[in-house]
Write a structure and sequence with these properties.
The protein is of the alpha/beta class and 223 residues long. The protein contains nine helices and eight strands. Bound molecules: cytidine-5'-diphosphate (2 copies). GO terms for molecular function: kinase activity.
């Protein structure tokens, strides 16, 4: 049995999961995996190739043709879709609007979970997403469930992207976040739900440094 440390971070959209996961990985020299980037890259492929999401054979065929790879540099997420760097494109609104629908497909989830579990086989890892503590690593060493006030989350995301994407309004972002949270929590296949043994981290009033401290203390307590 392997005894590598797995930190699972789940929670609602834009509540600081990847900020925390990256900071932890950097501090502890763990591998960081952004599972959302994988679903986003699959959604990009589905968009580009007009995949009919009611056609199971088409979905299976698409999944066979999708090859994802992470290139970790400075703990930032760099992901390729069939050898093409798509890290920027997967953050744009068309993908954000499609991703939760694609992520609800059981064929897609089965394949992504399989790949994610492989990544956690032997290395210390921090993975963030929606089902990491419930489906991907139900025996994770530490599970955190993150949340924050929805308007604070929308404002943070807006501050992050509005210089690059001035056409996107705060209302667009708020609606997208609310819609994705709804889809993610109500889908049939591994919906977003707090694992019973997950520690809740509400960071509405916390800085990134404070949330890092919170998590480090819990990891220290594992030793
Ligand atoms: O925008 P944000 O960083 O909150 O989302 P993300 O982590 O990039 O994930 C994008 C979408 O992928 C989510 O809204 C979910 O629909 C889906 N996802 C999922 O279903 N399971 C995961 N483990 C990670 C993401
Ligand atoms: O990964 P997730 O979608 O949950 O969120 P994120 O991309 O880590 O964080 C969304 C935005 O909130 C980023 O711009 C972070 O810098 C910011 N943030 C913050 O201002 N305060 C925190 N305590 C956590 C995140």
């Amino acid at each position: 049995m392997s005894n590598n440390i797995i930190v699972a971070i789940d929670g609602y959209s834009s509540c600081g999961k990847s900020t925390l996961a990256k900071a932890l990985a950097k501090k502890l020299h763990y591998i960081y995996v952004d599972s959302g980037a994988m679903y986003r890259a699959v959604a990009l492929y589905f968009l580009r190739n007009n995949i009919d999401m009611s056609d199971h054979a088409q979905i299976e065929e698409a999944l066979k043709n999708i090859h994802l790879n992470f290139h970790s540099r400075d703990y930032e997420t760099h992901i390729t879709l069939n050898d093409e760097e798509v890290s920027e494109e997967i953050r744009q609104m068309p993908v954000s609007e499609k991703v939760s629908e694609v992520a609800a497909l059981k064929e897609v989830r089965r394949e992504m979970v399989k790949q994610q579990q492989r990544m956690g086989k032997s290395k210390n890892i921090v993975m963030d997403g929606r089902d990491i503590g419930t489906a991907v690593f139900p025996h994770a060493s530490l599970k955190l469930f993150m949340t924050a006030d929805p308007s604070v989350r929308a404002q943070r995301r807006y501050d992050e992207i509005h210089l690059k994407n001035p056409e996107v309004t705060l209302e667009d972002i708020f609606e997208n976040i609310a819609h994705r949270d709804y889809q993610d929590t109500t889908r049939a296949e591994s919906p977003l739900v707090r694992a019973e043994d997950a520690v809740i981290l509400d960071n509405t009033n916390l800085t990134p440094e404070q949330q890092l401290q919170f998590a480090l203390e819990r990891i220290e307590a594992l030793k």
